[in-house]
């Protein structure tokens, strides 16, 4: 397994190295680049002394984004499908919304656009509720920059504390019946600051949060319209480390629905 992992990383490094070289060459042409992506911004990024990132540093950043964005998003997709199958009414409501969106698409349009994504109001609540219930990023460390009062306790300036996101997301004061999967709880509800942090917050807010929600929503759009999940062990116990997941890794079949 280790040898295969090293080889896979080597192939990925080769791909990223070639992509960086391609971008660098395009930037040197008279036409330049008319539309910049994240890689272009990394190539342009420089510190106060004018130093730019070298190729190795850029590749490390890209690898971090690929790894960080893949596993967590995949876990939320898995849990969303589990919750949808376990709650038929939620599944039906979400599916009907996606069917309306498809019917309203212009004739000849192939695939979703941001316009359709912004119409997924109920599905957005399904995603937020999944993020709340599961809380994959379940804890982080913080240092108090000043004395802070929290639930009757004073945390002195300079103290380092462990913040449990799961305890915030499952606090009945913030979310009545917190263990219940209920997307409708988000109808007109704006969470208080610091009570909904699936992507952390402040200066440490995950830079890929909107991309992750977009990817999850597109996956669920197609899942709702065309597939269903048949689990082998629906009552399988849950494992909580390093991420919350069924112990059998959600063993089952994704079955295509014939409409």
Give the helix/strand layout.
Layout: H1 2-28, H2 38-44, H3 55-86, H4 88-103, H5 114-118, H6 121-134, E1 139-143, E2 148-150, E3 153-155, E4 160-164, H7 165-169, H8 209-226, E5 227-231, E6 238-239, E7 245-246, E8 252-256
Antiparallel strand pairs: 1-4, 2-3, 5-8, 6-7
Helix pairs in contact: 3-4, 3-6, 3-8, 4-6
Describe it for me?
This protein has 259 residues and is mainly alpha-helical. It has 2 domains: 53 residues, no CATH class; 186 residues, Cytochrome P450 (Cytochrome p450, Orthogonal Bundle), CATH 1.10.630. 48% of the residues lie in helices and 12% in strands. It has 8 helices and 8 strands, in the order ααααααββββααββββ. A two-stranded antiparallel sheet has the order 1-4. The chain has a two-stranded antiparallel sheet with strand order 2-3. A hairpin with a 2-residue loop joins strand 2 and strand 3. Helix 3 packs across helix 4, helix 3 crosses helix 8 and helix 4 packs antiparallel against helix 6. It is globular and about 55 Å long. The two termini are 41 Å apart.
């Amino acid at each position: 397994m280790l040898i295969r992992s090293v080889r896979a990383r080597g192939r990925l490094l080769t791909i990223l190295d070639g992509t960086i070289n391609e971008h660098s060459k395009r930037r040197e042409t008279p036409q330049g680049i008319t539309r910049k992506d994240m890689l272009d911004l990394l190539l342009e990024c420089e510190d106060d002394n004018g130093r730019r990132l070298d190729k190795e540093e850029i590749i490390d950043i890209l690898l971090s984004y690929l790894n960080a964005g893949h596993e967590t998003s995949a876990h939320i997709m898995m849990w969303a499908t589990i919750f949808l199958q376990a709650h038929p009414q939620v599944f039906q409501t979400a599916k009907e919304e996606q069917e309306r969106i498809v019917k309203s698409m212009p004739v000849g349009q192939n695939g979703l656009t941001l316009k359709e994504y912004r119409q997924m109001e109920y599905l957005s609540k399904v995603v937020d509720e999944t993020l709340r219930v599961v809380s994959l990023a379940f804890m982080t460390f913080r240092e108090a920059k000043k004395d802070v009062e929290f639930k009757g306790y004073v945390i002195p300036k300079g103290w380092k504390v462990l913040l449990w996101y799961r305890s915030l997301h499952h606090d009945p004061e913030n979310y009545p019946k917190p263990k219940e999967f209920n997307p409708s709880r988000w109808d007109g509800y704006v969470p208080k600051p610091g009570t909904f942090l699936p992507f952390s917050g402040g200066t440490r807010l995950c830079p890929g949060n909107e991309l992750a929600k977009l990817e999850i929503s597109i996956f669920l759009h197609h899942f709702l319209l065309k597939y269903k999940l048949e689990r082998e062990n629906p009552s399988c116990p849950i494992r909580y480390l390093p991420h919350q997941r069924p112990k059998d890794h959600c063993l089952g079949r994704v079955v295509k629905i014939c409409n």
